[in-house]
Amino acid sequence: MPDLSVTVDGLKLPNPFIIGSGPPGTNANVIGKAFDEGWGAVICKTVSLDASKVVNVQPRYGRLRAGGEIIGWENIELISDRPFAAWIDEFKQIKDKHPAAC
Predict the structure, then answer these.
(1) What is the pLDDT of residues 5-17, one digit of tens each?
(2) CA angle 35-25-80, nearest 5°?
(3) Closest of 34, 15, 11, 16 to residue 24, by C-alpha
């Protein structure tokens, strides 16, 4: 099998395939599944130091309009409403389970 590893700003990744922030980066369970499936990296949801200030918007997607027509969708969930301490614990769990990926 060919070596697909890359180094990005000093961080060595097993391959250049990276999942951007979104549903696959919402908690340790789904981030771990991405690493189990062989992704090179996962960008987690934006983490807040004070999750109590985060308004959890519904619905998560908004219509993108132009000229009165719907031309697409935009993700309007921009930040995690999970406590910072929970993220730190889960980052440690991911690092313990996938040390080469972290």
Answers:
(1) 999 999 999 999 9
(2) 155
(3) 34
Q: Which residues of 15-24 are buried (b: 16+ CB within 10 A; e: fewer)?
A: eeeebebeeb
Give per-residue pLDDT as tens, 58-91.
657 788 899 999 998 877 666 888 899 999 999 9
The structure tokens listed for 81 are 């409403």
Structure tokens at 80: 């995690």
Distance CA 71, CA 19 (A): 24
Confirm if 87 and 24 have CB atoms less than 8 A apart: no
The reported pTM is: 0.73
What's the CA gap between 4 and 82, in Å, rounded?
Answer: 34
- Tokens standing for 23? 């549903």
User: Residue 99 to residues 33, 39, 76, 91, 94: CA-CA distances in angstroms?
Assistant: 14, 14, 32, 11, 8
pLDDT: which is higher, 55 or 38: 38
CB distance 34 to 42 below 8 Å: yes
